[in-house]
């Protein structure tokens, strides 16, 4: 018995000695539990951590605005992060600016806020860049599954010496003013200056089309601003799909690829800026696909004057008229006309985050501008998260806009163009003119020729005057003054004759830029404030003399 057992034990020991070695007790575990219930929910405030645990279920912390903002603030050193977190306007943070050798700034709607008394060092910039993705050719990067954008400034050697960390947010309901146009399947072109919220609106439009109207939506995301950074798109685009563009120069190729390979019903594009992209958008529109895109500008006229983007509104060509036709129209023999159909059916001018100007027929608007007439537009404003629509070209008949027998109206005090706020002091009128001078006077009737109403309205808003001070009219006989573009006025002597017959002073600007139009409005308001009698041209000065006097405006 003993002799049998011993060899068996030896064989067992020999067998065990041939087994692979046990894993080391310090080797990493092959599996990590996805649920971390013991870790509290991260919050924004002092001592904010740079890493965030993955919560159980399908809800990711990236979907929560406070956590997304926390991931942006994690790029900052501890002291800077604490200063920003303690600011009262933290939810409205616009961006954080870090330049080498300068004090860092956090920008809020109320202004810039210094977040450290010590200048930025190389270590601060390296700490931030180490936590973001790779910078592309356009010097932009992002944080995975967020809408934040990190833009770099490099020196001549290619070293990063500055960062602009812009906070991105998906705002639900930001496209509510355009819901009827979206539902009808209209192709929309959104125009506005930088920082007015174009990308936020088209992101919400993409979500509405994909989730609410069950359409196949494909986003061509040039710099990952719509769908966020990383391979997994942000939840703010809903069920819409996203194609990333490796290089901004290849965006027009990706547009065509999206149509040919993925059968979309809607294409969403951000910032059409080149002629090739405009041609690609025109080709897509001819295939019956709904387009939603943005372009930089203030008004539709800016696109008409832009040779790279004029194709979006149908293109512009010079036409020579016969003598009889030119005489019938009352214009010169050579005129500008729209070359072909517009790529987009509707145009939207973004005046501010709460006010839009709608051109339901973009082709009709372009034709009116080229002929010197007033286009039919709608002004829509957001008030208490409800849609409010005000028609410029006629009385408001929608009963939903009336309350207790009065038309609801919200005065938007914030200007649409943030870039011109630096010159705001140049355009301010005296305080008594702004507050009380128009209470007992009839409004100034203004007839505009060759200048868009949108530009004049923006100039009026920058002057901070009462909306009732100036009333735009399309009847020259009811006007108290004529504001015209010099090049347009010289081509139409009939307008000059009509103004002279009604004793209406003529104010002329050499360009239709917002700055020049604002100065002209300020000049005519000052003259009108001096008194009705002094304002009449027939007493002291002729119309043509007034033109010469104001050509330099």
From TrEMBL:
GO cellular component, one term: chloroplast
Keyword Nucleus attributed: no
Top-rank lineage group of the source organism: Eukaryota
Residue ranges of every copy of the AAA+ ATPase domain listed in the record: 184-315
Keywords, comma-separated and alphabetical: ATP-binding, Nucleotide-binding
SUPFAM superfamilies linked: P-loop containing nucleoside triphosphate hydrolases
CDD domains: AAA
Nucleotide-binding is among the record's keywords: yes
Gene Ontology molecular function, alphabetical: ATP binding
Protein name listed in UniProt: AAA+ ATPase domain-containing protein
Species this protein is from: Vigna mungo (Black gram)
């Amino acid at each position: 018995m003993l002799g049998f057992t011993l060899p068996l034990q030896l064989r067992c020991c020999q067998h065990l000695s041939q087994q692979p070695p046990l894993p080391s007790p310090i080797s990493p575990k092959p599996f990590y539990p996805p649920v971390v219930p013991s870790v509290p929910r991260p919050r924004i405030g002092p001592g904010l951590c740079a890493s965030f645990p993955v919560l159980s279920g399908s809800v990711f912390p990236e979907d929560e605005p406070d956590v997304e903002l926390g991931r942006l603030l994690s790029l900052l050193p501890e002291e800077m992060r604490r200063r920003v977190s303690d600011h009262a306007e933290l939810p409205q943070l616009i961006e954080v600016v870090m330049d080498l050798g300068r004090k860092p700034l956090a920008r809020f709607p109320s202004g810039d806020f210094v977040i450290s008394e010590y200048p930025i060092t190389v270590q601060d910039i390296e700490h931030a860049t180490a936590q973001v993705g790779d910078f592309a050719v356009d010097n932009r990067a992002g944080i995975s599954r967020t809408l934040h954008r990190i833009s770099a400034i490099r020196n001549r050697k290619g070293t990063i010496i500055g960062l602009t960390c812009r906070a991105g947010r998906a705002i639900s309901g930001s496209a509510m003013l355009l819901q009827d146009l979206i539902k009808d399947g209209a192709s929309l072109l959104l125009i506005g200056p930088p920082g007015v919220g174009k990308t936020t609106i088209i992101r919400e439009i993409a979500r509405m089309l994909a989730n609410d109207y069950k359409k196949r939506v494909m986003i061509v995301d040039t710099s990952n601003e719509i769908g966020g950074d990383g391979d997994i798109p942000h939840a703010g685009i809903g069920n819409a799909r996203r194609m990333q563009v490796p290089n901004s120069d290849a965006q027009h190729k990706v547009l065509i690829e999206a149509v040919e390979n993925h059968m979309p019903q809607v294409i969403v594009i951000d910032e059409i800026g080149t002629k090739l992209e405009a041609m690609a958008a025109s080709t897509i529109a001819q295939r019956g696909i709904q387009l939603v895109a943005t372009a930089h500008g203030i008004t539709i006229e800016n696109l008409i004057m832009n040779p790279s983007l004029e194709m979006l509104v149908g293109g512009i060509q010079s036409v020579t008229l016969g003598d009889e036709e030119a005489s019938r129209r009352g214009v010169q023999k050579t005129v500008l006309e729209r070359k072909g159909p517009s790529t987009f059916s509707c145009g939207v001018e973004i005046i501010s985050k709460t006010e839009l100007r709608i051109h339901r027929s973009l082709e009709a608007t372009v034709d009116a501008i080229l002929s010197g007439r007033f286009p039919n537009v709608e002004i829509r404003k957001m008030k208490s998260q409800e849609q409010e629509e005000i028609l410029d070209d006629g009385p408001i008949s929608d009963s939903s806009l009336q309350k207790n027998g009065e038309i609801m109206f919200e005065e938007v005090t914030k200007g649409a163009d943030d870039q011109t706020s630096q010159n705001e002091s140049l355009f301010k009128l005296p305080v008594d003119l702004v507050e009380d001078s128009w209470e007992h006077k009839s409004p100034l009737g203004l007839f505009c020729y060759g200048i868009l109403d949108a530009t004049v309205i923006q100039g009026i808003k920058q002057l901070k005057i009462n909306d009732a001070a100036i009333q735009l009219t399309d009847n020259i006989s009811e006007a108290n003054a004529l504001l015209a573009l010099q090049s347009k006025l010289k081509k139409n002597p009939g307008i000059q004759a009509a103004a002279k017959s009604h004793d209406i002073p003529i104010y002329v600007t050499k360009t239709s830029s917002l700055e020049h139009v604002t100065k002209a409005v300020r000049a005519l308001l000052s003259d009108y404030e001096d008194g009705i009698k002094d304002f009449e041209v027939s007493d002291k000065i002729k119309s043509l003399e007034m033109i010469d006097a104001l050509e330099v405006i």
